[in-house]
Amino acid sequence: MPSAGNVTTENGVQRVRQASARRRRDRFLIGVAVLTIVGEPAEERPMLIIADDPQWLDEPSAQRLAFVARRLRNEPVVTLLTGLASEGAGPWHTHDAYGDGFASTVPVD
Q: C-alpha distances in angstroms, 7 versus 16, 18, 44, 46?
């Protein structure tokens, strides 16, 4: 028979897992919402998404931007990230949105 302490610990672990699942679902729903906001108007005319100084993006924003870029790859949507190389890498550096090297970095003097 489990002690009261074990039951509390098990309940706590279960709550953490449920909260984690909710956060993942919420992040996905936010990505789908942004995808809809950008994708629907792109059916009528091309769109350009610009993120200036993306090194300042927080991780969740960088993830959503990569999510949208991957799914709009075959749509008339271009994503442009601009920033200074000297300001360091941000979380967007770790997101290969297309997974095949489609994106590139172009240095500008």
A: 14, 16, 56, 56
Pair 68, 31: CB distance under 8 Å: yes
Please say whether the beta carbons of 58 and 51 come within 8 A: no
CA distances from 45 to 39, 77, 98 (A): 10, 9, 22
Q: pTM of the predicted model, to two decimals? A: 0.59
CA 87, CA 91: separation in Å to the nearest integer? 13
Dihedral (Cα; 36, 41, 43, 47), 10-degree rounding = -100
Residue 79: other Cβ atoms inside 10 A: 19
Q: Tokens in use for 73?
A: 């790859």
Dump pLDDT digits (tens) for 4-52: 545 577 787 788 788 778 877 888 888 888 888 888 888 899 988 888 8
CA distance linking residue 101 with residue 91, whole number of Å: 17
Q: β-strands 47-52, 77-82: how paired?
A: parallel
